[in-house]
Design goal:
Length: 162
């Protein structure tokens, strides 16, 4: 079994409308949420051995807090700067099989749509929300979008202490 964690980036700052989308930083609420989710992931001990993040500032900054909390480096992958499920799925299917539990940090609607495709259930991935999906496969390349996966938990930062 493989386990996929989808962490949507925390709330971004829209105060500079001239700033390109990829360079938008987190706002204050986003900063708090990323640290709250990082602390949760440290406590949850889910066995994350690989973190892959969109290179967009808001996603990479969110992933950096988790990477620090877990002691696992976050590797940027430009293919995760996508808003579609197919792009995220391509990244998932290319993950090294040496990793059984991988966290991806990225964007909606791609994360919500992929979660729906994998599990057959619709859930809202709010900013900084984390979906933990159990996949009935032994190899990442075998991940199917047929509803056979299980959403083990969906965690929103607003529901966490801190």
């Amino acid at each position: 079994m493989k386990r996929l964690l989808l962490l949507r980036h925390a709330k971004s700052d829209w105060s500079d409308p001239a700033l390109p989308d990829e360079l938008r930083p987190l706002n204050r609420r986003g900063e708090r949420a990323r640290h709250r989710m990082a602390a949760y992931l440290r406590r949850a001990e889910l066995g994350v051995s690989c973190i892959v993040t969109s290179p967009a500032t808001r996603a990479a900054t969110t992933a950096a807090a988790v990477a620090e909390a877990l002691g696992v480096p976050a590797e940027p992958d430009p293919r995760l700067y996508t808003f579609g499920a197919a792009g995220v799925l391509a990244v998932v299917r290319g993950l090294p099989d040496v990793h059984d539990t991988v966290l991806l940090a990225g964007h909606n609607p791609g994360f919500e749509d992929l979660s729906t495709d994998l599990t057959g259930e619709v859930h809202d991935y709010l900013t900084a929300s984390l979906g933990v999906i159990d996949l009935p496969v032994d190899q990442w390349r075998s991940v199917r979008t047929d509803g056979s996966a299980t959403l083990e938990r969906l965690v929103h930062p607003r529901d966490l202490p801190g």
